[in-house]
Amino acid sequence: MSRRSFVRSLLETSKVIRFLHRSLNQSFLKLRYLHRHRQKKRNKIPIAKASPAANPSNEAARLEALQRYEILDTPPEDAFDDLTALASFICGTPIALVSLIDSNRQWFKSKVGLEATETPRELAFCAHAILSPSEPFIVPNALDDERFATNPLVVSDPDIRFYAGVPLVTADNYPLGTLCVIDRIPRRLNREQIDALRALGRQVITQMDLRIKLEKEKELNELKSRFVSMTSHEFRTPLTTIMGSADLLEYYSDKWSKEKKQSHLQRIQNAVQHMTLLLDDVLLIGKAEAGKLKFNPSPLDLKQFCLDLIEELQPNVSNHHSLTFVNHTQDIKANLDQKLLRHILSNLLSNAIKYSPDGGTVNFELFCQEGWLIFQIQDFGIGIPEKDLPHLFESFYRANNVGDIPGTGLGLAIVKRFVDFQDGKIAVESEVGVGTRFTVQIPFHPVANYSS
């Protein structure tokens, strides 16, 4: 190779080296820039912090309306799952929810694309949505919205960016939650998608209303079944008695003594009275269910009232039972509805006697504590099975261990409604073979402080 060719080769090699050096240097600078840019982005990631929505002005009534539906913590249902799946498909989002806003959480009746069943209310987008119940609530990019930019559901899993929810509003205008769609990227819905989401939201609330109607229909059918069973049993005995005594009187009255005829007439009268009392109970429970009870308070000497009640019940107490009354209060007068109170206490005392064995004792005690009158009735009879306790105050319900002891299953149902009507409370403690104690608490106004 000549010297000139060698020099030319060195010069070309030098140019290549300089080019590679510049290229490497530029690449390094770009990498350095990207590293610094990413570092800055990391430093700008917000600290997870919720910005809770304010409560609606009618929050207490709204929560009461939600509880009326008895839907919280119920299993998934196809009717709701179909609507969320449809919402997800129409809006093209990976997540769709039927979210109900409870006092301190949002709970998902139905969900697509999300494993969680609930989240704290303070994190809920839906808690913001129910503040404007007549309009869809849409957040195109949560990172650009100061209400949500630091929300833990935004800065970490499930990485919410887009949210659109239509409030679920009852017929009496309470927003219970939303049907919402969620995406992990910013986006917008077109008018047709928003209208479709609104229509699906209306179907969700329709399904919720339908659940209540179906449950009430189920309860009504069970009530009818119990009523038929009870009446066929309870009316058969007195009707048989009436028919038998009437036939005997028809054929043998001219041969019988006056005393024997009177005995059969008395049997007929007793049977008619039993049927009348049964019908009275049915009418009372109907009146209570229809909200037609009336509250007529008047000054009442409680100690004397209880003593009189025990005296009235004495004919029902055989020589084999003992009924005791203990008054733990000062002699006070309170403004109470005497008719309602008499029905409550006489029913509980009669039951205590009826379900007590021969030689059994029934204790009746009266207390007064912080504005409440407390009546306790304790027997030492057959007791109530634990599985029957939750149903004890249902109409026509009787415990499984009552055997042939007569009863309609209406007495305690009426007692419960009369207690509730006076804003009172009733509780029961029982153990099979040991006995039962009922505790009734009724708020009262001493006569001196009563101004109505």
How is the biggest beta sheet arranged? 6 strands, antiparallel
* Net shape: elongated
- Chain-averaged pLDDT: 84
Instruction: Give the helix/strand class.
Output: alpha+beta
Rounded to an integer, what's the Rg over CA atoms? 38 Å
| Counted beta strands | 13
Per the CATH scheme, the topology name of the largest domain is Beta-Lactamase
Q: What amount of the residues lies in strands?
A: 15-25%
How many structural domains does the protein architecture include? 3
Number of helices: 10
The N- and C-terminal alpha carbons lie at a distance of 126 Å
Unreliably modeled segments: 40-44
Please tell me about this protein's structure:
It contains 10 helices and 13 strands. It starts with a helix and ends in a 9-residue tail after the last strand. The chain has 3 domains: 59-214, 2-Layer Sandwich (Beta-Lactamase), CATH 3.30.450; 222-289, Orthogonal Bundle (Helix Hairpins), CATH 1.10.287; 298-449, Histidine kinase-like ATPase, C-terminal domain (Heat Shock Protein 90). It has 452 residues and is α+β, with helices and mostly antiparallel strands. The longest helix has 62 residues, at 191-252. Helix content is 46%, strand content 19%. Strand 10 (361-369) and strand 11 form a beta hairpin. Helix 7 packs across helix 10 (411-421). The strands form 3 sheets. A 6-stranded antiparallel beta sheet has the order 3-2-1-6-5-4.
